[in-house]
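Protein record

Derive tokens from sequence
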Amino acid sequence: MVMRISQWILVLALLTQVCASVSNDATEDAEKLGNLDEESITKEYTLEELVADSNYTETEAWLANSTTDLRTTAAPINALSNNQFPNATARNGRILGGTPITTDAGFSQYIYHVAVRGTSSAGTHRTFCGGSLLSNTWALTAAQCVALVTTVTVFPGTYSNPTAGAGTTATPTIHPSFRWNFMIHDVALLKMSSPLTLGTLIGTIRLSSVKPTAALDNVAFKTLGFGPNDDTTAALGATSALNWVELTNVKKATCNSETIDVYVTYPANTGCLGTSSGTKGTCYADPGGAVIYTSSTDGTAKLIGINSQYIGCPSQYPSSFTWIYPYISWITATTKKYFT
């Protein structure tokens, strides 16, 4: 009996020490957080942390546990619809609240923009995205646009009915660290099967070497894409027109606070484009399209990002884009060319 009482006393003593330690740690953490600004405590999740975190959707959980490498397979994503997986690229598309381009003169400053169509071997998975020409043989788009397809076709030099012509086939090179699950490193290069002829309606854009900093918070960026006039149109057709829109580069901490209620945190190396609910923003088929920044120092429009994710369409939530700056070395190493 004496032995049992002694054992219980020992257990209680240990528990008291543990509780005291937890309390002290919590107090110290609170004091540390009190000395940090909003930007410092914003979480930038790694892939491993996202998989371990319980705050993500069931679809993302299924994808995280999938044994299929979605960068290379041509199989559809388990027949998931866009309602189940709103970030998946659909066949229809639009820039919300944009300005349509209707003349050659209006298109002259966007002649680097191309439509990118991907199709799987069985035809069960199709994508329609945007892209940007870096040269007559290379284009840049989002990895999600070409990750599940076997045939990629690029359509340059048009601002209406983009798939009317035959297009040019291209070979994609997806960033080696891309993971569909959370759209991490959502970047891909496309090499044309034959060089394009540059001219009045087909041109190139330079990459911006501007590093993402707080100085770019709340700065206006442009983006563009094809799409019908309303969400009832199921596919791109003869009425499809290229639209451009100006959006605000939202501070990442503000962006995260706006998306947290739907359990979304855009990954590192991404920025956010502010939207107006139901009236202005990006939507289906806009991933891969250019995010353009015109620096006041040289007045030249350059590619500073690539459209990546959106949360529903239309939506009040900001969409994400992949910053170009962290990938310039990879682009140079892959293409053996400089585009800045």
User: Anything to note?
Assistant: The longest helix spans residues 2-34.
